Amino acid sequence: MNVFRLVVITALLLLAGCSGVKGRLDADVSGIDLPRMTLHRYDLDLFRVDTNNLRRGLESLRPAYRFFLDTDLSDSSKLAGMRQYLESSRNRTFHDAVAIRFRDIRAIEEELTQAFRHYLFYYPASRIGPHPRPLPKKGGEIASDIPHLYAYISGGDYQFPVQFADSVMLIGLDNFLGSDFKPYSADGLPAYRISRMTPDHVAPECMKVLCKVTCPEQLPGNTLLERMVDAGKRLLFVDAMIPGTEDRLKIGYSESQYEWIVKNEKHVWAAVIDNRMLYTTDGKLIRSFMADGPFTPEFSQDSPSRLGEWIGWQIVRNYFENQPGVTLQEVMEEKDAQKILTMSGYKPGK
After folding, report:
1. Which residues pair with 169 in a beta bridge?
2. pLDDT in tens, 121-179
3. Long-range contacts made by residues 299-303, C-beta under 8 angstroms, separation at least 24?
4. Domain that holds residue 156
5. Residue 289, domain member (yes or no)
6. Counting CB atoms within 10 angstroms of each CB, which of 162, 257, 321, 338 has the fewest?
């Protein structure tokens, strides 16, 4: 085979490998009329307040941060609580680290702007939050409700690094200070969680919360298949919002964990099928495939946890790829996990 023909065949194979679901999710959002979003720095502005003149300082901030400060600032108990929060050495440590690590947040703002443009592309009529604020589109048409973005210091609220309330998305930047931030391990957080507490995970975590708001969680069913497909649909949503982000960041795997599942996906699927796990309702077995942790006990310690989440994601991706007439919203609303599996044609390694 001559060199030119080999190069052509290689190029065609590469193009084939880039087609499919990635192509479907590579939406053109250049026409979405959404101005660049701003991440308002309540985290920094609040800690600039002089605690010796606390009430006046908070009143000066209130016009810009009513979500946080729309309260009776003459209440001595509330002022005392705020003073305690601001003077906490722990909170100060987190704030100082955030001020350094997130001195420049333009990349995060751009990533979230693009994500919400994708959101408007897929959900043009969506009204998120209980008090929607209409966003005008070209021609005066109402597009959707897009939240204000606020950064704050959570003080170690590790369970909810991103929250959504009243058309406001709250991002606790102190949850994304990097795997080398020593207070995380001092607080007893396991290494597998600390590994994904990095700035790269801000946008994926925001989109996971947006998915919960847009598509409220329901009981996914009792079988492993149903649990996997439900988790897979939620990762497809994240796929659609941030298609250019690495898969390992979307699911929260380290590089070595990602490499392991890419290499061993066909073996994991074979084990599920050969051991007749797909329709099991055994809670312990389902947890071993779906629960967070350092690894999956049924496989090696090099394996990541949540293997069922990964498998479900690939099933739903294949379904979306093979059903070009099905929209993202329809995928998210589809409750028949068996239908999704059957029509996905999912066969890893082939």
Report:
1. 149, 164
2. 999 887 664 334 444 343 333 345 789 999 999 988 899 999 998 789 999 999 999 99
3. 299/264, 299/268, 299/271, 302/256, 302/257, 302/260, 303/257, 303/260, 303/261, 303/264
4. 39-214
5. yes
6. 338
75 and 157 fall within a common domain: yes
Same domain, 132 and 84: yes
Read off the tokens for 270: 């074979």
Residue 22 binned pLDDT confidence (cut-offs 50, 70, 90): low
* pLDDT score of 342: 97
Query: Which range among 112-126, 227-241, 331-345 shows the weakest confidence by mean pLDDT?
Result: 112-126
- Amino acid type, 129: G
- In order, the DSSP letters of 216-281 are ------SSHHHHHHHHHHHHHHHHHHSTTS-HHHHHT--HHHHHHHHHHHHHHHHHHHHTT-TT--
Per-residue pLDDT reduced to its tens digit, 275-308: 999 999 999 999 999 999 999 988 999 999 999 9
d(CA 284, CA 161): 28
- Asked whether residue 121 is domain-assigned, the answer is yes
44 and 185 share a domain? yes
Q: 266 and 190 share a domain?
A: no
